[in-house]
Write the structure tokens for this entry.
Amino acid sequence: MLEYLCDLIDINYSDFPRNARAYKNNVYLRLIAKINEEDSIKCRQLLLYNPAKPLGRVVLGKDVMEAIWADMRRTQLPTWIRPAPPNWGTAQRGKLSADQYHVICMIHVVVTLVRLWANETSHKKEMLKHFMDLVSTVHLANLCVISQDKIDTYNEYIFRYAAKWTELLPNKSLKLILHAALHIGNVMELFGPEWTRACNLRALLSEDTDLRAAVSNMIQAIEATEEEDARGFRLTGLLDPTSHDSMIHSNACPIELSNDNQQQLRAILVSSHEDNHEIRLQRHALAVIKISSCSITYGTSTSAESKNSNILFQPGKVDQESIAGVIDRIFQHTHEVVGEDGPSTHYYLTVHPLLPVDPKSDLYCEFGFAGGFLCASVPGPSRLIKLSQVVSHVAVTLMGDGEYSGLMHVLPVDWLMLSFHLNEASAVGD
């Protein structure tokens, strides 16, 4: 760069040995001396030159970053999600891991950026929609259960994201990783979700010793990668989405069910037995503060497990939309059905539902499953559900003062990403 500037204003620097340690400093001093001594047009142009980055490269300014950091302090995440550094994006923080970028982009930036830019009519709104297309593709690409409609939706999002790249980011060249992402839809269609591809590869390698010997270097790399936790995936590998076993992780405390709990419990049991046999309920139950289902831990809101108390659950009818709520109590209960063999023991939760606002006034609903939704910060009356009705954890963020005072943002966070419904807004876009 120094040599280029010297060439612009005809400065000779050939007398400095290029291999000398002081070469760069000598060229710099001669350039500055020339600029200070002469009043030529070229020198004046150099003095006016601003080496700042071109406009458009900085997307998140200081005000946006401070808003994100403030929202992060009001966000409650389940314990299996590692919180992002509170000062990310600063020189003091330095580089971030892939797992930290994942949490920041999929949760924290979504919460703040939609709130700040969803009502914009300028370039910011287009940038927001572009970013949310990327967030949606990451959700879809990480599903453990896929279907053709989800693959088609993934392709729609990623191709729209790629098409908008040069328009919205003219100073950024297309990345090779984006080219690879354009083919993920085909890969999912041919080979299924990512976790099944890994299983199929392992089965193939275990059966074919010749192939295993031929790709020994790749096998060593895979095994070395599995020993790392740089991307936060070790926990995911331990989770079993096909397991329906429940496990209590705390001492059980005897409790007596209220009349309301008994009525709700009887209604649940009656709806699950079509033969109208007599159901005999015990008034006593065993309460715990945390329990695991499908290897995922849930806890009560008043205990040390409160971070795991925010959930999304399926109502009694399968065709109804899932509801967000806060777990108040977890208990084990045993009942008998006349005519059946022996008593049956199941786990239940008392949950305070979070009441969603009107979708027409919810800015987040525009972005479907990737945007989450707004709820009143004060939960509704408690209701009883079965443990099997729990869909996933949710990240909750109190929206603070101002226009969104008294509201809470809810974002489902399912590391297994078993499934979700695609609504028309998220599947079609604009």
